[in-house]
Amino acid sequence: MRVVFFRVTSPKEKVDCVLHLVRKHFEKKESILLHVSSEKSALFLDGLFWKAPSEGFLPHAVVQKETTECIAITQKAQNLNGARFVLNLCPQPCPLQAPCQVIYELEDATSPKAETLAKERFAVYHSQRYEVEMGLL
């Protein structure tokens, strides 16, 4: 499994990175799962995807059970839409396995605590022998 970290240094960069990744997979008709740690995070993404991109919205769903939605947002540690791509927005490493092939992570440099958590996730993935790399937008 591959893990791709994207370095972000501001809240705007975080939002832009999330939108870029989700839009990229949506345009390719590839499912993506967004794994979040709280209902607040899920609701933030829900609102964001209704407003962005400016030329329309990104069809999605906040889910707690299996779905066929291409873009799914969940707190559950399950791949509820069978996505091969997962954007982990939780402070801990992504627990999902197959059919997931790529886990996206944010190397969040917006605060010392966030940066420490990103480094810890990186170390866990590396210790599990995942193919870890840095991505560019």
**Which structural class best describes the helix and strand composition?**
alpha/beta
Kindly state the mean pLDDT as a whole number? 94
The fraction of residues in strands falls at: 15-25%
Which parts are unreliable, with pLDDT below 50 for 5 consecutive residues or more? Answer: none
Q: Rounded to an integer, what's the Rg over CA atoms?
A: 14 Å
DSSP helix count? 3
Tell me the series of helices and strands, N- to C-terminal.
Answer: EHEHEEEEHE
Description:
The protein has helices at 11-27, 39-51, 112-127, and strands at 2-8, 32-35, 61-62, 71-74, 85-88, 102-108, 131-134. It has 137 residues and is an alpha/beta fold. The longest helix has 17 residues, at 11-27. The protein is globular, with a radius of gyration of 14 Å. The mean pLDDT is 94.
Write the layout of secondary structure elements.
Elements: E1 2-8, H1 11-27, E2 32-35, H2 39-51, E3 61-62, E4 71-74, E5 85-88, E6 102-108, H3 112-127, E7 131-134
Parallel strand pairs: 1-6, 1-7, 2-4, 2-5, 3-4, 5-6
List keywords for this structure.
137 residues; alpha/beta; seven-stranded parallel sheet; 23% strand
Q: What's this entry about, in short?
A:
It contains three helices and seven strands; from the N terminus they run E-H-E-H-E-E-E-E-H-E. By secondary structure, the protein is of the alpha/beta class.
